[in-house]
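Batch 3, record 17
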Amino acid sequence: MSKTIGIITGSLRKNSFSGSIADYISEHAPAGYEVKNIDISRLPLYNQDYDGQDISEYTTFREDVKSLDAVLFITPEHNRSIPAALKNALDIGSRPYGENVWNGKPGAVISQSPGGIGGFGANHHLRQVLAFLNVLTLAQPEAYIGAYHTLIDENGALSNEGTKDFINGFLAAFAAWIEKVS
Ligand code: FNR
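Prediction for the assembled complex:
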C-alpha cells in the first residue's frame, strides 16, 4: 500500500513559487508514495478560546494531518522567518494541549526565494518549531532554493534541469528517511 506525503506550502499567493515546487513534486512523487496537498489558506487565525469548540476548518485540517505518513513543508521567507499563515497552521495542529497532530511525523523542509540565500532564515525558524512539535525532520540534504524566478518557464513551472535533479535527490532521501523512522 502506498504511503501519503502531505505537502504544506507557506504561501497563499496565486502562482506562488512554493506552489510551483509543490506541482513538480506532485508529478514526481517517489515510488510507493502519493502526494496530497493540504490547504492552509482558509484556516481562521488560531485562538486558544477555540480549543474544545468544533471549528470545522480546524477539525478537517487536524484530521487531514493525522492521516498523513509524512509532511513536506515548502515555504517562502517573510522577513527572515516563516509566513504567518504557516505558523498559524502549525499552531492549530499543535492544540488542544496534548493533541498535537504533528507528533512523531517524519518531515522535511524546502525553502525558496528570488534572493541568493534561498530562504535560509525561514527554513531554520521552521526547523525550530518542528523540533518542538516532535516532527522528525530530515537533516540532510538541506534545501534552500535561491533565485527561483530564474528556474521557471513562462507558465511558472519549474524548468531548470539541475534544480529538478536536486529535488529528485531530495525526495529520494526523504523517502529513505520516512522508511527509516516509520
Ligand atoms: C518577502 N520576501 C522575502 N524574501 C527573502 O528572501 N527574504 C525575506 O525576508 C523576505 N521577506 C518578505 C516579506 C514579505 C511580507 C513578502 C510578501 C515577501 C520575498 C518572498 O519571500 C519571495 O517573493 C518568495 O519567493 C515568494 O514565494 P511564493 O509566495 O511565491 O511562494
